[in-house]
Write a structure and sequence with these properties.
2 copies of one chain form a homodimer. By secondary structure, chain A is α/β, with parallel strands linked by helices. Chain A folds into 2 domains: about 140 residues, Rossmann fold, CATH 3.40.50; about 55 residues, Arc Repressor Mutant, subunit A. In chain A, about 55% of the residues lie in helices and about 15% in strands. In chain A, strands 2-1-3-4-5-6 form a 6-stranded parallel sheet, sandwiched between helices. The longest helix of chain A is centred in the middle third of the chain and has 20 residues. At the A-B interface, α1 and α10 of A face α1 and α10 of B. The structure holds a DNA duplex.
Amino acid sequence: MITIFIIDDHPLVTDGIKTMLQSENYLQVTGTAKTGKEALAFLEKQPVDVILLDISLPDMDGLVLCELIRTKNKATKIIGVTSANDAGIITQLLHRGGNGYLLKNMERDELIHAIHRVLDGHVYLSREANEKVLQQYQSLNTALNQMPVLTRREKEILALLSEGLTGPQIADKLHLSTYTVETHRKNMLQKFNVTSTMLLIKVAREYKLLN
Amino acid sequence: MITIFIIDDHPLVTDGIKTMLQSENYLQVTGTAKTGKEALAFLEKQPVDVILLDISLPDMDGLVLCELIRTKNKATKIIGVTSANDAGIITQLLHRGGNGYLLKNMERDELIHAIHRVLDGHVYLSREANEKVLQQYQSLNTALNQMPVLTRREKEILALLSEGLTGPQIADKLHLSTYTVETHRKNMLQKFNVTSTMLLIKVAREYKLLN
DNA sequence: CCGGCACTACCTGCATTCAGGTATTTTTCC
DNA sequence: GGAAAAATACCTGAATGCAGGTAGTGCCGG
């Protein structure tokens, strides 16, 4: 028995996936959620084997949600499902702990095959997605390989900086010393090899670490 | 008995709609199509009461298809179904003979309600679509009304600031005094009513004055 | 021909950021 | 339990940015 959880704000899609999975009686959809919040609440109590995650959700970025789920539950396999076929999203998803990527125009067989693949420890990308990735991989991989790894705190501060808050304002908001905030900022400047916050935000945006 | 035809290249969506309609036994899905060509071929032989039409199709523009179907069959009601809520699409759809517009995040009840409404000769627009359209128009208007007017030089400096250049660097590049650059920057801060270059860039981006 | 606008330039004082550190505590992971 | 990573905090000096001015030049349109 394989338990499956569906996160999508479209009842249509949820119903469609359920219908597709009905044919295999060892696949059981134990729950669904329309928002990231709902999903986290459910998974807290009742873990599942595979999560089908729509990247575009109303209340939070699906990529962020993927990361959150991954930190909480290391065993669960996460398959991203979107209608867009964007190489950027795919690579990001994988970097944030995703195990697979499907397009919403998938057939029933592909969905079931993907579930088996990720449970076997493989990464499954839809054929179309795969092509896109390979196509753009050469140009992207240099950048992605060099992409600095930011800590939780650093990401938090980066986001606030991008909102236009100053060092002292951030320190106040997070109840930290300005020195601490400056240290984090300084470390990020080093990691990205830039000389100012403006450039930091700019390249972070290019690395798609920011909206 | 109401006959329904679904045009969508996503089996997921087709299945989902079918499932939603199963609850009402007087609603019968007599066929589906993944492409515009398929759809036209089917409808030629076997007209239906209501068509649920995905606007984004692989082989042709859904809006054009709507127009084609309308010319061939005046009695059929056409409801557009998309995931995007774009004002342009809605108005175009109606101009080309569409009778309704639904978002893919609809609930079962809304779908059934929409079918009844269009059969009664009304135009049905999903509440969310309506709201978002109005919302977009409003935000666009307010944005355009309050949008500061920047001079040529200011725009030039704004662009360089957004590239991450510092005041002195810009002064050097444009062969100006740093004082001059700072004056322009200062004037822009006033015009946008912000207190830092970071915020200046942020709101300028929101006003779509920057890439 | 003159008033308004854009562009240029300058000054002062204060705030913030940047570039170098060092150092302690807490968390995470094996 | 101990090492590594992360988070916290501090210091100094120099550079840059911000807020508040003032002021000259040139251009355009009523």
